[in-house]
Each structure stands twice: as structure tokens, then as C-alpha cells.
């Protein structure tokens, strides 16, 4: 898969790629190590529709969830699960 | 005898308290304006300029800070210009400035040609002479990287496709400044052709050497000034910058170029922590610099130059849009992005004032050339217009884009798609 890497002098580096369903996703890695997860607009792949700033531990959790959703009892897991059963009333 | 001494001392302390009082008033006023700028989400630069206009000799609130106060403001203003350029140098590493230069050079050259020409042409049309033409060309050429970078970040445009193009143009401009400022300094200081060529060559050689050293031996200067202690680091970097700037000034190369080169030579994590330390100092003295520039302008002249400034602003807003459109289309960006790139480049700000400040200061101190008294007023009026209207234009574009977007979102939700 092709990931585009664009240096942004004075800001950081941007990585982005197109998904099989035609959306563009990207990461904006700032020089101060702040990371923005960006989703490009559906009707205009040139513009950011949504940008979410992630802290280091949030990135780790996202990576873990994306790589392989861990079980509730996995001692290695960094995520704290709260699972709602379908039969329960959700708050 | 003793009585006279005591009386003199008392008078001196009274005068210095008076200076503190006046400066305190000025800074407090600037603080209020800064807050207003922050609330309105506009750049504080135009407000500081307005404050300078108001406090000027012929302004509505003339300031009487006395000789020592005026000296402080003048020196502070010089320090402000130096710190502005130092921070600009710190912003980019040498390899970042040169990376992709071959790729972005056509856009950069187009930017220079399209945006310097209107300024130069106007100065010649008004009969202000070739030196003023070069200065005004610089004023209309340089976008404000401070205003643009903040705007892109505030609007969440940093991830957009057109943003690398916008940043590439800004980087090219900053690099051009390193060559432009020595040329301008040589022109305004009224040197002979030989001496001017010499000082420009020295400056350009220094630029080349600094870039080579910074790229071949990264971190050399950083290791030299580094200290884990913030206080020591701050004093060392500031001391080094003023030393280099002062030497550059003595060699008839602009002190600001020396400061810019110190910033470029410092790179990596040290550059970042230094930038963090220097930011408040830069903000303070840059504010003094903008006020100082405003102080020298007769407010009534603003009204005289307003039609010309509006025409220049409209034309050079158009040429920036054309530049951005062309550069972004070369990068394969769609129509919306091309327009955004062009509009994002419209704001002019701190560096236009640095160029104009350098010119007016030289004209005031030497009689090497005669500068039209309306020059400063025209630049102030021009920057006031574009520093405010440029960001407004980009925000309006954003509003227009979002409106139809919301409608389609509502439509897709009601039909149960997605």
C-alpha cells in the first residue's frame, strides 16, 4: 500500500493514504510529537473534515485496538474495558 | 554643593519613575490590545501599529516619555526586529529550508515576480525613486509567515492538500529575505557601488557558509551554546545573536540577517527549547517594534494614502491568489484547494514592517537618499488592511464551503445512507 509522506517545514510531517473504499486518512506528526489523526472530506479529498489530537498513550491504545482487539482478560492490554451486554439497559 | 547633587539625584529618579510610568502605560495598553486581538482571533500586529499611531507626536494621545524613554523604545524596536528574524531562523532547520528547493523554486520565483512587481511599479509611478521601489517591492512580496501559519493551524487546515504548497512558498520567501535584506541595507546606507557590492557579497558568503556548516556539521553551534539551565541557554543565545547582529551591522550587512543566520544555524531539539524560551521576549520587543514604527507616522497622512493603499492591497491580494492558484495546481490540488492556497497567502505583516522600518530608519539617520514622507504611512496602511482582511477572506471561504456541506450531510442522514 502506498503511504504518502509530506514534510511540512516548521510544522512536522504528514502521512496519508487512501482506503479501498475511497476515503483518505492521515496522520499529522507535529515536531513537538503531538499527533493529529485526520480524516479527509468525502466529497473533497483535499480538505480535512475531522482532526483528532492524540496523546501518546491514546495513540498506543488506538494501535492496540487496530492491530488486534484484545480480550477483556488480556493482562498485556493497556485498555480498560467496559463491555455492555446487549440485554442490559445502556446508560 | 551636596544639596545640588541631592537635588539632581532626586530629579533623575523622578524622571526615571516618570519613564517607568509612561512605559508601563504603553505596555499595559498593548496588553489590552493583545487581549482584544486574541478574543477577535486576529493578529495583534495591526493593533500595535494603531497604538503607535495614536501615541505618536501628532496622534490623539501623544506620549511624552522623555529622552531616555524614547531611546529605550528605539533600542527595544531594534531588538524586536532582531528577535523576529532570529525566531524565523529557529523555525526552520537549514536542510528544511533547502529540501525540495528545486521542486518549489518555480512557485517561489512566480511569487516573487508577481508580488514584488506591483510594489516596485507603484513607488516608481509616485516618483519615489529606485531605493523606495526596492523597499516597497519587498513589502508587497513577503507574506506574513506568522499570521499564515497561525491561521492554517487555527482553521485546521494543516492537513489539507494545498498546505505543503503554501508552506513551500513561505519557506522560499524566508530564504529570499536572507538575500534581500543585505541588498536593501546596502542600498539605503548610501554606500558607493564598490562598497555596496562588497557588503552584499560578504553577506551572501556568510549565508552560504552558515548553510554549509549547518548541513554538513549539524548541531555544531547548538553544542556550543547548549546548557541544561534555561537561564544560561537564554543568555548565551541572546548574547550570541546580538554579537552577530551587531557585527553584521558594523559590516553594513543588516543586523537582522545576522540574527536570521544564528537561528538557521541552531537546529534540532535545542532550537525548539530556545524558541520556547525566546517567544515571550520576542512578543514583547516585537510589540515595541511595531509601536515604534507607528510612532514615526503622522496619522493624517494615513488618510492621504488610503486610496493608494487600498488599490495596492487589492492588486497584491489578487497576485497572491494567482500565485497560490498556480502553485497548487502544479501540485495537483483541486480548484477549491487552489483558491484556499491563494487566499491563505494574502496576509502581509511583520516582515513588511521590518523592511519598511529598516528603510525609514536609514533615511532618518543618513542623508544618503531622500525618502518620501508618505512611505511609512503607505506601508502601515497597507499592512493594516491585509493583516486584517487576509485572514477574514480565508474564514469567509471556509464558511461558504461549510454551508452546502451541512445540507448534504442532512440529506444523507435522512435517507439512511452511511
What features would you describe in this structure?
The complex is a heterodimer of chains A (91) and B (418). With 91 residues, chain A is mainly beta. Chain A has one domain (4-67). Chain A is built from one helix and five strands, in the order βββββα. Chain A has one helix at 56-67; strands at residues 4-8, 12-18, 24-30, 35-40, 48-54. In chain A, strands 1-2-3-4-5 form a five-stranded antiparallel β-sheet. The radius of gyration of chain A is 17 Å and the shape is globular. Chain A starts with a strand and ends in a 24-residue tail after the last helix. In chain A, 14% of the residues are buried. The model of chain A has no long low-confidence stretch (mean pLDDT 82). Chain B is globular and about 80 Å long. Residues 406-418 of chain B have low confidence and may be disordered. With 418 residues, chain B is an all-alpha fold. Chain B has one domain: Up-down Bundle (Na+/H+ antiporter like fold). Chain B has 17 helices and no strands. Chain B has helices spanning 2-40, 45-55, 66-91, 94-98, 101-125, 130-141, 145-154, 163-188, 193-216, 220-225, 230-250, 255-265, 269-295, 299-330, 335-344, 350-365, 374-414. Chain A binds chain B through residues 6-11, 14, 16, 26, 28, 31-32, 36, 38, 40-41, 43-48, 51, and chain B through 91-92, 96-97, 99-100, 145, 149, 156-164, 167-168, 171, 272, 333-334, 336-337, 340, 401, 405, 408. Chain B: Residues 32-388 form the Cation/H+ exchanger transmembrane domain. Chain B: Belongs to the monovalent cation:proton antiporter 2 (CPA2) transporter (TC 2.A.37) family. Chain B: InterPro entries: Cation/H_exchanger_TM (IPR006153), Na+/solute_symporter_sf (IPR038770). Chain B: This is Potassium/proton antiporter membrane subunit, CPA2 family. Chain B: One of its GO terms (cellular component) is membrane.
Secondary structure elements and pairings:
The complex is a heterodimer of chains A (91) and B (418).
Chain A: E1 4-8, E2 12-18, E3 24-30, E4 35-40, E5 48-54, H1 56-67
Antiparallel strand pairs in A: 1-2, 2-3, 3-4, 4-5
Chain B: H1 2-40, H2 45-55, H3 66-91, H4 94-98, H5 101-125, H6 130-141, H7 145-154, H8 163-188, H9 193-216, H10 220-225, H11 230-250, H12 255-265, H13 269-295, H14 299-330, H15 335-344, H16 350-365, H17 374-414
Helix pairs in contact in B: 2-13, 2-17, 3-12, 3-13, 5-6, 5-8, 5-14, 6-8, 6-16, 8-9, 8-12, 8-16, 9-12, 11-12, 14-15, 14-17, 16-17
Region (Disordered) (chain A): 69-91
Protein name (chain A): Potassium/proton antiporter subunit KhtT-like N-terminal domain-containing protein
Domain Potassium/proton antiporter subunit KhtT-like N-terminal (chain A): 1-67
Amino acid at each position: 500500500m502506498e503511504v504518502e509522506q509530506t514534510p511540512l517545514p516548521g510544522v512536522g510531517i504528514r502521512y496519508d493514504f487512501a482506503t479501498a473504499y475511497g476515503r483518505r486518512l492521515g496522520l499529522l506528526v507535529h515536531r513537538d510529537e503531538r499527533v493529529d489523526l485526520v480524516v479527509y472530506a468525502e466529497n473533497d479529498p483535499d480538505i480535512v473534515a475531522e482532526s483528532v489530537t492524540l496523546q501518546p498513550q491514546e495513540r498506543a491504545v488506538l494501535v492496540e485496538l487496530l492491530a488486534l482487539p484484545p480480550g477483556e482478560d488480556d493482562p498485556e492490554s493497556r485498555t480498560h474495558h467496559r463491555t455492555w451486554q446487549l440485554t442490559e439497559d445502556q446508560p | 554643593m551636596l544639596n545640588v547633587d541631592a537635588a539632581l539625584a532626586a530629579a533623575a529618579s523622578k524622571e526615571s519613575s516618570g519613564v517607568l510610568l509612561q512605559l508601563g502605560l504603553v505596555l499595559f495598553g498593548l496588553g489590552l490590545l493583545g487581549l482584544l486581538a486574541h478574543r477577535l482571533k486576529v493578529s495583534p500586529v495591526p493593533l500595535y501599529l494603531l497604538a503607535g499611531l495614536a501615541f505618536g507626536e501628532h496622534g490623539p494621545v501623544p506620549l511624552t516619555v522623555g529622552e531616555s524613554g524614547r531611546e529605550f523604545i528605539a533600542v527595544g524596536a531594534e531588538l524586536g526586529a532582531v528577535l523576529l528574524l532570529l525566531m524565523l531562523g529557529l523555525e526552520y532547520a537549514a536542510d528544511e529550508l533547502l529540501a525540495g528547493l528545486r521542486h518549489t523554486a518555480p512557485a517561489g520565483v512566480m511569487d516573487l515576480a508577481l508580488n514584488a512587481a506591483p510594489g516596485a511599479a507603484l513607488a516608481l509611478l509616485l516618483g519615489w525613486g529606485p531605493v523606495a521601489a526596492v523597499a516597497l517591492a519587498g513589502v508587497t512580496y513577503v507574506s506574513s509567515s506568522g499570521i499564515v501559519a497561525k491561521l492554517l493551524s487555527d482553521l485546521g487546515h494543516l492537513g489539507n492538500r494545498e498546505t505543503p504548497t503554501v508552506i513551500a512558498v513561505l519557506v522560499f520567501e524566508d530564504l529570499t529575505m536572507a538575500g534581500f535584506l543585505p541588498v536593501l541595507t546596502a542600498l539605503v546606507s548610501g554606500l558607493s557601488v564598490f562598497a555596496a557590492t562588497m557588503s552584499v557579497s560578504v553577506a551572501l558568503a556568510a549565508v552560504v557558509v552558515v548553510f554549509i556548516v549547518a548541513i554538513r556539521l549539524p548541531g555544531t553551534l547548538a553544542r556550543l551554546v547548549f546548557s541544561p539551565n534555561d537561564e544560561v541557554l537564554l543568555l548565551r543565545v541572546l548574547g550570541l545573536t546580538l554579537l552577530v547582529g551587531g557585527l553584521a551591522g558594523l559590516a553594513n550587512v543588516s543586523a537582522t540577517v545576522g540574527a536570521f543566520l544564528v537561528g538557521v544555524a541552531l537546529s534540532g531539539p535545542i532550537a525548539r527549547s530556545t524558541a520556547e524560551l525566546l517567544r515571550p521576549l520576542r512578543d514583547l520587543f516585537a510589540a515595541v517594534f511595531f509601536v515604534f514604527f507607528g510612532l514615526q507616522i503622522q496619522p493624517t497622512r494615513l488618510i492621504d494614502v488610503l486610496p493608494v493603499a487600498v488599490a495596492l492591497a487589492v492588486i497584491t491580494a489578487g497576485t497572491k491568489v494567482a500565485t497560490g492558484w498556480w502553485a497548487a495546481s502544479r501540485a495537483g490540488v483541486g480548484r477549491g484547494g487552489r483558491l484556499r492556497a491563494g487566499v491563505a497567502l494574502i496576509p502581509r505583516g511583520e516582515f513588511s514592517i521590518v523592511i519598511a522600518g529598516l528603510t525609514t530608519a536609514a533615511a532618518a539617520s543618513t542623508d544618503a537618499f531622500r525618502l518620501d514622507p508618505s512611505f511609512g504611512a503607505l506601508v502601515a496602511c497597507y499592512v493594516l488592511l491585509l493583516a486584517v482582511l487576509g485572514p477574514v477572506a480565508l474564514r469567509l471561504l471556509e464558511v461558504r464551503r461549510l454551508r452546502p456541506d451541512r445540507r448534504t450531510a442532512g440529506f444523507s442522514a435522512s435517507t439512511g445512507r452511511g
